[in-house]
Design goal:
This protein has 316 residues and is of the alpha/beta class. Helix content is 38%, strand content 22%. 32% of the residues are buried. The protein binds adenosine-5'-triphosphate and magnesium ion.
Length: 316
């Protein structure tokens, strides 16, 4: 007696008839052409970082090279521990590289500076200051008078849609609102680049989707370059002009993908062939096919299941 093994498969992405993620419509190709003509804002050259740990040296980053152009939106994606946060902390000047260098507008970066704004996953607002005072904080430090700082802060708070909450304290706001204040605070200093490390990672799916739309709207309206780290493939494709894909141990550049989805973006594009083709490529890079020994182990398990089925009478 032979058991019939019916393999039920969820509709796998590789079975869909998708274009290549490398295919670009004329509109998208022309946009990338124009984008590459813009001045380079950020240059990362031969960047490496090693940490000395209890179990020896950890190479967090190795030979990272890329550049971003003015008003470009670049997402960084990669498996956990591949060095994404280390990279962004080096760009922010919070960590020094072991090798290589970072240039902003052609000048080597040493330490933090107002030319780079940071937004992290955790809520980093000062809890004892109101929304307005949180946003004014950096403005006062860069020497603006109180009146000017207040006026400018209110413009940024309005931009993120929180005008009515200017006198609220952080604990009176939702997670999404707090992150909007954090974005306003980072943008108020008019940085050249906004560095964002999983800024929406702690938000629920709906709030997250709204925050993505807010961020795109802000980005379209002001002169800002954005480097955005995420774990979420959909988020990366929806937001980015290009996606820097890292691999782990050591953290190296796997691929720099030009997202073929036309701009401006809308949630309706999530199911477009270009979107799915890019997602399929990211899946391949981030979750590569199982190693041969794993496949053999799976096969063995399947054979065991089949033979149990076959010999069901003799087993009992
Ligand atoms: N201060 C540190 N001291 C020692 N090792 C560190 C330090 N910071 C990071 N590392 C190591 O460097 C590697 C990269 O860490 P990093 O936090 O940059 O990864 P990540 O890609 O941001 O991960 P995740 O997706 O989980 O946030 C890890 O192996 C981590 O253990
Ligand atoms: Mg991280």
């Amino acid at each position: 007696m032979h058991a019939h093994l019916t393999v039920k498969q969820a509709p796998a992405m590789h079975n869909l008839d998708l274009p290549s993620y490398l295919e670009q419509s004329d509109q998208v190709g022309e946009r990338f052409g124009r984008l590459k003509q813009r001045p380079v804002v950020l240059e990362v050259e031969q960047l490496g970082k090693e940490f000395e740990g209890a179990h020896g040296t950890v190479t967090a980053l190795r030979d990272i090279n890329f550049r971003t152009h003015r008003r470009e939106f670049v997402c960084v994606i990669g498996p956990s521990g591949c060095g994404k946060s280390t990279l962004i902390r080096i760009l922010a000047g919070l960590e020094t590289p072991s090798s290589g260098r970072v240039l902003l507008d052609g000048k080597v970066v040493h330490g933090p500076g107002p030319d780079r704004g940071m937004v992290f996953q955790g809520y980093t607002l000062f809890p004892w200051l109101t929304v307005k005072k949180n946003v004014m904080f950096g403005l006062l430090r860069t020497g603006r008078g109180k009146m000017v700082a207040e006026q400018e802060a209110m413009q940024w708070i309005d931009l993120v849609g929180l005008g009515k909450f200017a006198s609220s304290y952080p604990h009176q706001l939702s997670g999404g609102m707090k992150q909007r204040v954090a974005i306003a605070r980072a943008l108020a200093n008019q940085p050249r680049i906004l560095l964002m490390d999983e800024p929406f990672g702690a938000l629920d799916a709906q709030t997250r989707a709204r925050m993505q739309a807010y961020l795109l709207e802000i980005w379209q309206n002001i002169d800002i370059t954005i480097l955005f780290i995420t774990h979420d493939l959909d988020e990366a494709i929806y937001l980015a002009d290009r996606i820097l894909v890292l691999k782990a141990h050591p953290g190296e550049v796997n691929e720099l993908i030009e997202v073929p989805v036309p701009q401006p973006r809308s949630p309706a594009q999530f199911l477009s062939p270009e979107f799915l083709a890019t997602k399929k490529r990211l899946e391949e890079l981030i979750h590569p096919p199982q190693a041969e020994e794993d496949i053999n182990a799976d096969h063995l398990n399947m054979v065991r299941m089949v033979s149990v089925d076959d010999d069901v009478e003799s087993v009992f």
